[in-house]
Write a sequence for this structure.
């Protein structure tokens, strides 16, 4: 590569933006860019399926706070990647996906893998363009990166593709030092002082303040902790932001979630949509509570509930401004409610922990998933990255496991992320403990990526809760229809599969085996290699999600209890 080609320009731009690695699966239509990445010293983590490449980039971005990059070849490479792109889209994660196309002279002539990718991806991305001219590459690549990072709206995936002949074309030297190579930082804005004053007054007057954080709060953990202390608010994190506030902060009341949502008189959403996980903000669940919406994205200020006041601005700056104002105000509403909620949270959390640690095997004699998670929990580092995947085991894990960073299938419910997320997280955060817990069904979606983990020495522990079924659906079918159809799996030996790819792995069938195996597996991870545990668990232990109505999908709300409340509210008179 003696010339500076378009492929080299793409690689140099990524390097200038701080991109250290690209998750990718090779193909002829991206080969010039592939080789240019390597020449520029950017690590290529080559995967076994394009969906996994995007998922790894997703996890890398979520853990690092920087742009994640995936590269896939044309045609089926792009279509395979679409599930990962859709998940990043719904989760609002900054990912850039790059692909190729047949040479321009062969366009629309029936060339191999000739597709109009952008038509497929436009609804799933913040930016989707085909680059066709050498003079537009730097500008459009910068625009794609800016869109992914949320400079003109919500963060999320961007997509570009380049014909392979364009990738080989030489770039005029004058374009190599332009402003688009390094880009610029995202602008930061704050709400108007008068609006900040009004928000501070709302908070000071309220007596039962509940803060619910989401995507937008990531990167604002310190400011959020200070704000919680200054406001005396109770705090619920969600899967989008779990772990950003230390677990010992006195505002945590996760175990009192349902009661807090019903009793709060002021609900503050922080970079969080009021989606199905929060009952859409419905008065049927939140009662007459006032809403204060805070976000750096307009869509998170008005979805489902307009709120009494909205603050649009950079979230760390906004929280700091509110904290300063609250330090100068008396909290006239009192804060006895927080003490009550916090005590209830501690009591329930301690009872849950004791129940997990003493959990007996299932009626079938197999491992109790609560006991498995209790053993994992006591071995987690304070700065651990925890990944929870699946259906039944996710329901157990999201309340049992805590880490500084928490990742799960997100609001798309995109199960099958565990192994890919583990590789992406381990690569993005060397030195941090990475533990992924997944069900046997969800593990199967990207199981081949254990090969990627081994080849690229991604030090992560993958723990499979192997209950031989899609357990939530099995229970729903049994209770609703009296028979089970197409939801049972075999108790496959996933440890044997992992060993076939060179990964150290353990198959567990009793409680006594759990602790020693975890200790050995985590020692392997600390040594810089991945490891896997396949724990044969009992499907007879019912998770909370299997009892909540998720499997049968109620009409108005995600949970059966909320659905009932919504029906009652809809039938009530306005005076009530």
């Amino acid at each position: 590569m003696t010339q500076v080609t378009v492929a080299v320009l793409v690689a140099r731009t990524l390097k200038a933006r701080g991109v250290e690695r690209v998750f990718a699966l090779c193909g002829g239509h991206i080969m010039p860019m592939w080789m240019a990445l390597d020449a520029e010293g950017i690590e290529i983590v080559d995967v076994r399926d394009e969906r996994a490449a995007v998922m790894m980039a997703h996890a890398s971005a979520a853990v690092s706070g920087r742009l994640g990059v995936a590269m896939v070849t044309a045609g089926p490479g792009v279509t395979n990647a679409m599930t990962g792109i859709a998940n990043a889209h719904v989760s609002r994660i900054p990912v850039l996906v790059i692909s190729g196309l047949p040479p321009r002279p062969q366009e629309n002539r029936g060339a191999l893998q000739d597709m109009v990718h952008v038509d497929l991806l436009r609804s799933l991305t913040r930016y989707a363009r085909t680059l066709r001219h050498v003079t537009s590459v730097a500008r459009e690549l910068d625009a794609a990166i800016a869109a992914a990072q949320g400079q003109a709206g919500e963060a999320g995936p961007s997509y570009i593709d380049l014909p392979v002949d364009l990738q080989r074309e030489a770039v005029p030297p004058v374009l190599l030092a332009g402003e688009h190579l390094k880009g610029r930082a995202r602008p930061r804005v704050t709400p108007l002082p008068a609006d900040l004053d009004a928000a501070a007054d709302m908070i000071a007057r309220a007596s039962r303040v509940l803060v619910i954080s989401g995507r937008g709060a990531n990167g604002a953990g310190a400011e959020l902790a200070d704000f919680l202390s200054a406001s005396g608010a109770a705090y619920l994190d969600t899967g989008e932001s779990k772990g950003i506030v230390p677990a010992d902060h006195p505002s945590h009341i996760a175990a009192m979630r349902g009661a807090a949502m019903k009793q709060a008189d002021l609900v503050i959403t922080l970079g969080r949509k009021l989606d199905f996980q929060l009952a859409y903000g419905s008065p049927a669940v939140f009662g007459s509570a006032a809403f204060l919406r805070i976000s750096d994205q307009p869509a998170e200020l008005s979805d489902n509930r307009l709120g009494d006041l909205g603050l649009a601005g950079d979230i760390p700056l906004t929280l700091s401004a509110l904290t300063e104002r609250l330090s100068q105000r008396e909290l006239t509403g009192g804060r006895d409610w927080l003490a009550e909620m916090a005590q209830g949270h501690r009591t329930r959390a301690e009872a849950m922990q004791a129940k997990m640690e003493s959990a007996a095997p299932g009626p079938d004699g197999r491992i109790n998933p609560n006991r498995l998670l209790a053993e994992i929990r006591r071995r987690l580092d304070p700065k651990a990255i925890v990944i929870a995947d699946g259906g039944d085991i996710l329901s157990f894990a999201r309340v049992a496991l805590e880490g500084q960073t928490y990742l799960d299938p997100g609001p798309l419910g995109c199960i099958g992320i565990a192994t890919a997320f583990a590789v992406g997280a381990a690569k993005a955060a060397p030195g941090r403990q990475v533990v992924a817990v997944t069900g046997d069904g969800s593990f199967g979606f990207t199981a081949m990526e254990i090969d990627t983990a081994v080849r690229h020495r991604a030090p992560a522990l993958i723990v499979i809760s192997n209950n031989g079924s899609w357990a939530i659906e099995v229970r729903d079918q049994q209770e609703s229809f009296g028979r089970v159809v197409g939801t049972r799996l075999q108790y496959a030996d996933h440890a044997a599969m992992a060993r076939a790819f060179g990964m150290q792995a353990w198959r567990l069938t009793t409680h006594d085996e759990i602790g020693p195996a975890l200790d050995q597996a985590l020692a392997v991870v600390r040594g810089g290699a991945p490891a896997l545990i396949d724990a044969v668990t009992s499907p007879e232990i019912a998770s909370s999600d299997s009892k909540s109505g998720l499997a049968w999908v109620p009409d108005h709300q995600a949970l059966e209890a909320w659905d009932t409340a919504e029906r009652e509210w809809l039938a009530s008179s306005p005076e009530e």
Notes: The longest strand covers residues 95-101.
